[in-house]
Amino acid sequence: MIKILFVCLGNICRSPMAEAIFNGLIQKYGLAGFIESDSAGTSDYHIGEPPDSRTLGVVHKYQLKLDHQGRQFTTGDFNKFNYIIAMDESNLSNIQRQLPKSADNKKILLMREFDEQADSQSVPDPYWSSEDGFEEVYQILHRSCQNFINYLKKNHPELAQ
Fold first, then answer.
1. What's the structural domain count of the chain?
2. Which of 6, 36, 39, 83 makes the best surface tag, with the fewest CB within 10 Å?
């Protein structure tokens, strides 16, 4: 089983949306028995809270499922997940600060490394924006998740179907 963790700051906007999109895509491609995902935040602002209502609105608009409670990223996540995908450079830096000496830092990637239309390294944080900002983030994450699945298929022959 390949395990993916999507990470943003508070775990109520970007990372749970990425989790929902990614899970929808792995269902679509019949990869649910081979890949699973979760999400977390680098801060403790929203532990135990549901995703932002605007995140849920976009997720439901695209008929995706999301059953998630905010949680904080921990050093134990380095052992639990094969890939840790940060939403921006600040999240990446926070994750890398917790990296145990024995952990593989090659498993930590930026989400927009998989966005061929990227004009920035960061998935913008829509928290302070309107619903349009959440739609923009959905489009970025959908492209990126699709390309990330292609990356996984290329690098894990057992996923090729």
1. 1
2. 36
Q: 138: closest CA among 66, 70, 83, 36?
A: 66
Q: Which of 14, 54, 71, 143 is catalytic?
A: 14
- CA-based nearest residue to 39, from 83, 5, 73: 5
- Tell me which residue range forms the domain holding 145: 2-155
Residue 13 falls in the annotated catalytic set: no
Marked catalytic residue, from 38, 125, 143, 145: 125
Active site residue 125: yes
Indicate whether 103 belongs to any domain.
yes
pLDDT digits (tens, 9 = 90+) for 74-123: 999 999 999 999 999 999 999 999 988 877 788 999 999 999 999 999 99
Residue 144, in any domain of the structure = yes
Assess whether 97 carries a catalytic annotation: no
